[in-house]
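In this supplementary section we document a worked example of the pipeline. Step one takes a protein sequence of length 495 as its only input; no multiple sequence alignment statistics are reported here. Step two produces a three-dimensional model, which step three serialises into structure tokens for compact storage. The input and output of this example are shown verbatim.
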Amino acid sequence: MSEAKLFPGLVYFVMMVSLQFALYGAEGARSERMQRNRAENSARASDSVSVWRKLSGWLGLAFVIYLVLYAAVLGYIGFAYRNISLEGLQVSFIYTLLCWCIPFFYSAILGYVIYSWLPSYYGYCLIIVVWFLTMPYHSILGLIPKKVAGWVVNGDPNISEVFSSQLLEGIEVNNGYYAQRMFMFLILISLYLMVSYKRSMQINGAAAVLLIIAMMVPMVSPFVPYIEGKEEPQLAVFRLPADADEVQSNYTISKYVLHIRHGRSNHDLRYTVDMNIVANSNRIQMALLKDFQIRSARLDQIPLIAEQRDQMVMLDLPEKQGVLHMEIETRSYHPVGPTTAQLVATSPWYPMNPLEAENPYEKATKEQYDIYWSSPAPNEIRSNLKQKSSLHWSGEAYGPTLLMGRFKEKRKLVYPHYKTVGQASGIKQRIESFVYDQNAKYRTSIKLPSNLYYVSAFRGVQANPDEAYISAEANSYEDIDRIFYRKMDQTKQKP
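The serialised model returned by step three reads:
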């Protein structure tokens, strides 16, 4: 159990507390209405002070209740799992502050505003409806498109799991959270001012302007609070098209230079890549996952038309050698999240030879790589290349790997923060035991690559001669058999 699962798992409890705050705000409006009916003139004199005093009171109460709940959950983690770290405290505090405390405060304002406009039992019914439509659970049901629901949710906008992103993103707060909280605050404070100063045309006009500004936030914000995607992961296997015999892969690439820009929103990532290429023919094909789109391509200074079909790229080169330049972007590759990225050497997230993409363990070749991370990195980045500076990696490898997020490393074993050392070692021992049995079966002495990475970029296992990339959540003996014992199975099938 880790904070990445435990804190979001309390969503239903947090929803009920938020409802209580909404009803508390409504009761405040009802009490004020009764007092005004009794002594309207005296109440009017204290309106200006009481308006801001109510906000301070709701905020203080929300923070106190939040602290009690947060301390109780931390105490449970410490007592039951003894798994509290300083890093975990920092991340969980910011997450719960934005997804627990502030929604409590916003719910009180929302309840007050609705009952002030509709002071009857229908007001309470409307509060429950609005509470339901703005709660995180609604994002699971999907009654409203996520691009809309993500902006109006009063809580964690990413409760529904997106494989490859959810566990690693976990309770990481991205820039979209701040934009969404500001959006909701501007709406609520403008509505609150309207119901609190009904007789002031000047304040109502200012509140209306504030409301218009709030509505523009989702349109102008470069960040979104939600992470789109599905629970189903992609498979680790890259398959060549049916006419694999005709794949034009007779070329070599000696060097890659990549400049990567991480969008820090949803699955946004773009990069430029320069490849020193020598081809035996003018027509070549490259492997590139269909989540990535080529925006432009050229050989030296000559523009090219890159034709993408599924996971293959067709190019007609004017010359058989030169520097092949491409601009590529994605908005849907699940292993990229707002604060994380899992770009592994064995997956064609970058243009590579199709035969290498289909079988990197046997067909991969080493090339020279220079990689520059051209945008702020919200988390630490680990790579299989040598780090030259804070955002520059260089070296020779079978492919580049960049893991941005809270990963840990021990004895050439890299694993995500939500796994303990014992869990990571257990996966390794289980796989090594299977390899030992297969070696005995085929009378061979195959060993796992020396560097192991546990990732959630796909379901299964991928490997090249230096590294193995294993899904920490869904690894398969079939993949291990397919990668390391492919030739053994083919020999066994021969008559």
